[in-house]
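hiii, so i know i said id send this last week but things got crazy w the move. better late than never?? heres the sequnce for the chain we talked about at the cafe, plus the structure i predicted for it. fair warning i was half asleep when i ran it
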Amino acid sequence: MDMKHSRSMQRTVAGLVVVAFSFLCLVAAPAQAAMVGTAAVLQTHDRDLARQKVKLFLDRQDVAQQLEALGVDPHQAKARVDTMTDAEIAQLSGRIDEMPAGGDVLGVLLFISVIAFVTLLVTDLMGVTDVFTFIKKR
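okay and structure toks below
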């Protein structure tokens, strides 16, 4: 009896395996090959670069400190980058490009110098100060 039971079990398992493979062959779509255009490859590369840029931005120590100050775990923020859509990543990456990296020191000094010069010039013209000799007094 034990041999009949074993033979019966083998037939049942073999039948189930045949049915499963048959179903798999019917459901599986045939493979297709096609040429991938340069634009598609570049677009994928740009998306990967944008995602990498956002992750590198989040890796910066000053950004991590600011995130922690706002109550956001930096590791969670990096994990959320992986779930963002391509449009969200592109927008965030663009905003990172627009932000000043550390400030343009020369530009700031030039701006402050121009503001100081104009302020002193106006006050000299009004007669409040006497800084510039080239301004004729009344």
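btw The CA atoms of residues 12 and 29 lie 28 Å apart. thought thatd interest u
miss u guys!!
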